Amino acid sequence: MAKIQVQTTINGETADFLCDGQQSLLAVLRDELGLTGTKEGCSTGDCGACSITLDGQLVPACLVLAAEAQGREIGTVEGVSQGTGLHPIQQKFLENAALQCGVCTPGLIVATRSLLLKNPNPTEAEARYYLAGNLCRCTGYDKIIRAVLDAAASMRGESA
Amino acid sequence: MSNPNERKFKVVGTRPIRHDGLDKVTGRANYGADLSLPGMLHGVILRSPHAHAVIKKIDLSKALAMPGVRAIVTGADFPEIGSGGMAAGESHIDPKDLQANIMARGKVLYHGHAIAAVAASTIEQARDACNMITVDYEVLKPVLSLAQALAKDAPILHPGRKTVGVPPLPEGDTNIMMRLANAKGDVDAAFKSADVVAEGWYEASMAHQGYIEPHATVVTTRENGQADVWCSTQGQFAVKSMIAVTLQIDPNLIRVTPSEIGGGFGGKTTIYLEPVALLLSRKARRPVKMVMSREEVFRATGPTSGTRIWAKIGAKKDGTFVAADTRMEFEAGGFAGSPMGAASMTVFASYNFPSFRLEGLDIVVNKPKVAAYRAPGAPNAAYAIESVIDELAQKLAMDPIELRLKNAVKEGDTASYGPKFDRIGFVECLNAAKNHPHYKAPLGKNQGRGVGAGFWFNVGLQSSATVSINDDGSAVVRTGNPDIGGSRASMAITAAEELGISVERVRPLVGDTDSVGYCDLTGGSRVTYATGMAVIEASKNVIEHLRARAATIWGCEVDAVEWRDGQAVGTNGASNNKPLSLADIAKQMGHTGGPIIASASVNPPAAGPGFGVHLCDIEIDPETGRSTVLRYTVVQDAGKAVHPSYVEGQLQGGAAQGIGWALWEEYLFDKDGKMENPGFLDYRMPVASDLPMLDTVVVEVPNPLHPYGVRGVGETPIVPPLATVGNAVSRAIGVRMHQLPMTPPRVLDAIETKKG
Amino acid sequence: MAKVIFSGGLRALTGAESVELEAARVVDLVAALYARFPVLEGKLEQASVAIDGTLYNDARYQKLRPASEVHFLAPLAGG
Hints:
The complex is a heterotrimer of chains A (160), B (756) and C (79). With 756 residues, chain B is of the alpha+beta class. Among the domains of chain B are: 4-28 and 461-602, 2-Layer Sandwich (Aldehyde Oxidoreductase, domain 4); 401-459 and 606-755, Aldehyde Oxidoreductase, domain 4 (2-Layer Sandwich), CATH 3.30.365.10. A seven-stranded mixed sheet of chain B has the order 3-5-1-13-10-11-12, sandwiched between helices. In chain B, strands 7-8-16-15-14-9 form a six-stranded mixed sheet. A four-stranded mixed sheet of chain B has the order 17-25-26-27, with helices on both faces. In chain B, α12 runs antiparallel to α13 (426-434), α15 runs parallel beside α16 (527-554) and α19 (644-663) crosses α20. Chain C is an alpha+beta fold. Chain C has a single domain, classed as Ubiquitin-like (UB roll) (Roll), CATH 3.10.20. In chain C, 23% of the residues lie in helices and 25% in strands. Chain C has a five-stranded mixed sheet, covered by helices on one side. The termini of chain C are far apart.
């Protein structure tokens, strides 16, 4: 079967690739485009390690067919920090020690960015429910939620 | 040794941003599956569809003809090796069993057991070729529970294998691979003298470590037999030895580079893919990458044992324990080797029991071969003992913390496993829990509070470290422990503290088996303790060099140079010299003798155990049986917290795993031994909305064996939660729960039983 | 005389609760134990050894004091 040609935008830059009909966007990002920041934890959409945005919507890349990226805008962890500095979310994750092994961190950072774009002032419960699709096995979520609320405050121009 | 608590630390105890953090929040850090090499092939494993079977014949002919296929291996490609003991994490495994677990030889012992592997140009081609391998099986009846394994007419997994351990041992064929027993005093007489007795069976399910990153490896082999292995592991030197043993090749041919590791918790202290990838690479003469799917991780890596443990404790009416008795049954999985031995050591060790008796059995069943999981065996043992203690507290109408304080072990007490305790902090932790606001907070309707305690040993083992100075006065500290939870930052903090420079001026590096000296694995709660000790010694050796260089610069004897607060200071005849900082000396390294570099190696004894006490408030919905964790507090003795944020992180993470194991996590098998829930949807680990903030109290009773007083903290936090949560639920519904996980249907059953 | 206290499995094998032997180092003690109790031959190499309360993973050449109390335990690691 002939490969499908896809033209898309990733983190604001145009990208072209060839893929098979059944390949996931996760596989193409990681194996064809070298964007390994997005991680594979389960490939059944249950762990959130592959969280990306597709036209601004938070989705698991493992459940998106690569061909569906045609003409759309993809956001991955590699595009979160803009330019020379870290995004406040990234900075607050570091300051709050919100990562231990770090493998869930890219997915959580992308998901947190989506959360705070939608709801710049979430309560603890709102943050927990929004991020319930991002599994972390190392931290017990405490420091992650603190980092998220800290980042939200910082982005609103307040101190935590 | 002077009291480390009195030392004024400059860097130890602060919370700098970890050096590897930037790469982890930007996606730059490379985990096992993130490496790709030119010309690389993809390896896929064919797994058994049966839980128990004899392999009669494997036909590779159709598979070999499939497009893109470059190599296929089976168990026959592995060399014959003899039996013998070998440590792999806590669950000691015979190398012959390790090899047979990696790829079946003659017999299949669990559903998902590896049968063969294919390397092809694409992963789809490898999968398609696997589907074309035909295997003739003689299917056998599987053994799927402890009861089935012990039954009179049970199918035998390893005919001819005799039980080892303490007699009386079973005669003839058996699924009991090991029996341990120990006793002290006259237990039966002591129970007769007790005023009150509590006992019960407590059952916990097989559970998985649940690391988010599946196992992954990329192996390159060369024409001269050398192999480069890149893999996600807790111990690169252990991987090197295990590959050498299972493939019978010279370890000197192997270099193992640890990737960043996306969780391990003990599950990555053994090997699955690496030797297979090496054999495929050798045959295909190309690099081979193998990555497990999540389903494979559940079906075919090493969860921890499901257990049935009966415990009985007798006490006087003032709460003094007089006797304890236990029988522990541990599932080993398809091959011998569960953490029953460690459980036997921990089960009674937190308390003074004047007499006790224990029996432990290691039992094979047709489930995946178990591997180490954070304080292996101890959570299961603590679940039983701490639940029985809670029941005793209720019978005695005594506060559960007071009951524990009455019997808690202290320095100088004799541990149930033999030696006397050195300085330990169990009493301090109990008091901190008792005085915590959580313990006084009022409880509402359908709410219950649980208390639980436990500990894990703090192993020493071998570590080495090298510290080198750059000409700008910065330092590099090189060690060999994969960084699971921030240990590399602790190594940098330690070097900075010793050298008197800021932590930002230290670059910590975790090296491969060629670029750093030998280090035993990351695990056993040992890295900050033992590898940290090696870093301290190496830094001290660097300081000796710095003193000598200052003496050269000043033209004096080295005895006249002291190192104080990060500076060389002249004394006696040399005191009129201006002090020299590390940066000053570094600038002149070339003039004074060349590069400054020093190493050290240690093999310290095990430190005294780190104790923990947990408090948990649970609310039960009486209509659905659903548990909500309202509040959770972890108190633990860390000796000295080098980086407090990462110490707290260990306490919170271990507690969360224990809560999941207590409430939601279990392995469900169908009648043929196929796991029904090999995915994160139905193997239900805690998610962010399941838990409240997890409060931590870090107690610091210094460990006399470490210069700063450091005790390992990584494993203890998973030991108390099973009982802590069990006690909370039991008290919330007024019925003692005996089986984990306490899923809503089980809680509802208990509520109904109480009503009826 | 170093005092070796047996627990569980070792007590079952030797039939003894404890034994006192002359030995300068653990390696010498192990040799003396094997001589006294041939059934122990080869079984103590992997053991962790507690000497006066300190638990060593690797105790082979550790020195013993005249009245050291010694326990042989299963090797410990972790997860």
